[in-house]
Amino acid sequence: MSDLIVALDSTSATQLVNAAEAALGTLASSGSGHLGPFGVNWSVAANFSGGSAGLTPPKTISLNTIQFNYQIKLSFELDLNDFLPHGCLPQVCVTIPFIGQVCTPKICVEWPTVTIPLSYSDALKFSADFNLNPHLQGNQWLVDLVIVKVPDLQLSLKAAAIVTALGAVIGAAISVVPLIGPFIGVVVAAVIATIGLAGALGLLGDIITPFISGRTFTLVKQTQTLQLLPAASALEPAVNLTIAALASQIAQSDKPELVVSANFSV
Amino acid sequence: MNFMDSKNLGRGNLFGQKIIAAGKITYQIGVGGVSPSGDAFQVDVGSTPNASPMTYPIVITLQNGHFQVTNSPTKIAIGDVLTWHTEDKGTRGFSVSAQNTSGYSFDSTAMADNSVFTHVCGHFGVLEWTGTYLAGGTPKTVTGKITTTVPKLSTPAERVAYQASLAGGEIITLKDGIVDKPVVSITVGQTVFFAIQSSIGFSIVQSGFQPQKLRVT
């Protein structure tokens, strides 16, 4: 028989989950990868929010429509010579009545390499099953929710949105290159086609999946040993209460409840 | 390329001067707006004009910190035209000044009669320019606008037409403080020729630029 039992319905469990998401705070990661044929360096800041908890005995909590908020920053180098023909402005000759013939030289254009920076924020909603995992870590009892498996994240639309944003960023970044005016649309279309939805999807999956795979939310964190009475003298030491065991399950009574039970020792 | 400043010439610019005095001219290439330095180059100007005036394009490069010239003629006739330009994008911010022993002189940073400054317009939008000159010893200004548009390149015919248009330019003439075309419209990549018919100490600088909004489809 447990010394202490706490039962929470799905509403209270949802509040616990939301608090656990807030406690997790902003997660950050960085790395390098590929956006189609382009090598990119990226960094991401992300957090979880929202969602509701559904309770399924014996130990599954379904988190529905959790929102994963992320901001991705990436940059890559774009060598315009790979997309534009090498061309020359022809010689221009005019006759100025009071001077005579004046001819400008032919000017051949070498296109530069331009750094393309992208900062993109979005949110992804997903639902997944989590199992309860009570365990002792050091001197802390934890009741964790551990994701059972990564759900289908439906990233295609998000990847398409990134590709659209990239088009605008590329156009703006290359617009400062002299003489590129007539070719901006050509370059943007060619680069986007080169990257493709698959390229954006691949990179997005590589960045986002690690945040969700193996995801854990800590619902309960409790110090194992609690001091009931301080030491009164050398002959009367402190009286401590130790949580000897902590268990959790989803129990079904008139409605499913998250039940956390503890056994103490003195 | 591509900020417009007649005092600092680079690739995409040209300064030209019709020579109207005979004798030995000495010219130097210097850093824009600063007293010229380095080697001096001489051109003998004969007193008999050619039936058809000749134009001599002099090419400037920067080598080991010194301006070098190629194609510089040693003898020309009165009425012929000398032009200076660079084909090297690393050669920027140069100017040309010259004088002869009879007091005839010219300077690309302070253009006078029968000179020309050219500029290739490489960005699309509206370029505002200010010209400064001397009138009775007093500095005065004139202003103008160059609208640079993006051509349509959707069809082969449009691309051919655009390429052909690059061989043309717009001539803006300045005479005694009057600009004949203060507002012009060209296609990106075309050249504007500022031809100074009569003026003293004329220089032109880009005073503003409003880029055209992009529409990427």
Describe the fold and architecture.
The complex is a heterodimer of chains A (266) and B (217). Chain A contains 3 helices and 15 strands. Chain A is an alpha+beta fold and 266 residues long. In chain A, the strands form 4 sheets. In chain A, strands 2, 3, 4, 5, 10, 11 and 12 form a 7-stranded antiparallel sheet that branches. Chain A is elongated and about 115 Å long. The mean pLDDT of chain A is 90. The longest helix of chain B is centred in the last third of the chain and has 10 residues.
Provide a short characterization of the protein structure.
The complex is a heterodimer of chains A (266) and B (217). By secondary structure, chain A is of the alpha+beta class.
List the helices and strands and how they pair.
The complex is a heterodimer of chains A (266) and B (217).
Chain A: E1 4-8, H1 10-24, E2 27-35, E3 38-49, E4 52-56, E5 60-79, E6 87-89, E7 93-96, E8 100-103, E9 107-109, E10 113-137, E11 140-147, H2 156-174, H3 184-212, E12 216-223, E13 225-229, E14 239-252, E15 256-265
Helix pairs in contact in A: 2-3
Chain B: E1 13-18, E2 23-31, E3 40-46, E4 55-63, E5 66-70, E6 75-77, E7 81-85, E8 94-100, E9 105-107, E10 115-120, E11 125-135, E12 138-149, H1 156-165, E13 169-175, E14 178-179, E15 183-187, E16 191-198, E17 203-211
Parallel strand pairs in B: 3-6, 4-7, 12-15, 13-16
Antiparallel strand pairs in B: 1-7, 1-10, 2-3, 2-8, 4-5, 8-9, 10-16, 11-12, 11-17, 13-14
